[in-house]
Specification:
single chain, 7 helices, 9 strands
Length: 204
């Protein structure tokens, strides 16, 4: 993975509309807020790869404050409230000379470090131009793009995400299969958070 320059763009900027009044990304799971699980795994992994730069995009001052001493670039994007396309564009603009962009979401706390590493290695070692993780039936996050798709990514509007471009060029995509579907589960509703906490409590 050292051969290439890749921007690892961590999207921690959703509106959490389905979660209710509280910001789900700041909800505590065990000893830390939800968004930190994926981010900490990425920081731990990417410190060994000089070509990988982590960029966090957020509309939340609390996340800006909490990440100020991490070895990452944090981008404040208040326009993210209008849709994910704003977060994507903010991350790309902060990436400078990256050859590849890979987008992770901050509400997948179950994704294992080993899965993240294997996905990044799979995409980077083959210099894939496009790809994502998948289960038997569904495409998921993270998603990978070469800079060939930069203009199309920057042309996204409102709540259009990168999957729109992936599906448009599906014949060029490579897929990394994830066997445990729970790794790709987004936490969108309080009941999903409660179920996760209950499961963690039983396994601890």
């Amino acid at each position: 993975m050292d051969k290439i320059k890749a921007a690892v763009i961590y999207l921690a900027s959703g509106n959490s509309k389905r979660f209710g009044q509280e910001n789900k990304l700041l909800q505590m799971i065990g000893t830390k807020p939800m968004y930190r699980y994926g981010l900490d795994r990425l920081i731990n992994l990417c410190k060994d790869y000089e070509g990988f730069e982590i960029i966090v995009v957020t509309q939340y001052q609390e996340i800006m404050k909490q990440t100020q001493y991490d070895p990452i670039t944090t981008v404040f994007c208040p326009e993210s409230k209008y849709g994910i396309s704003w977060s994507i564009k903010a991350g790309i603009k902060a990436a400078k000379d990256a050859e590849f962009y890979t987008f992770f979401v901050a509400d997948q706390p179950n994704m294992k470090r080993e899965t993240i590493e294997r996905f990044l290695s799979f995409m980077a070692d083959e210099s894939c131009e496009l790809g994502c993780v998948r289960t038997e039936e569904n495409l998921g996050n993270p998603v990978w793009f070469s800079k060939k798709y930069k203009r199309e990514l920057l042309s996204l509007t409102k709540d259009q995400g990168g999957k729109k471009i992936l599906k448009k060029h599906i014949e060029n995509a490579r897929f990394f299969k994830v066997l445990e579907e729970t790794e790709l589960c987004d936490i969108d509703y309080p009941k999903e958070m409660q179920a996760m906490l209950a499961k963690r409590g039983k396994s601890s």
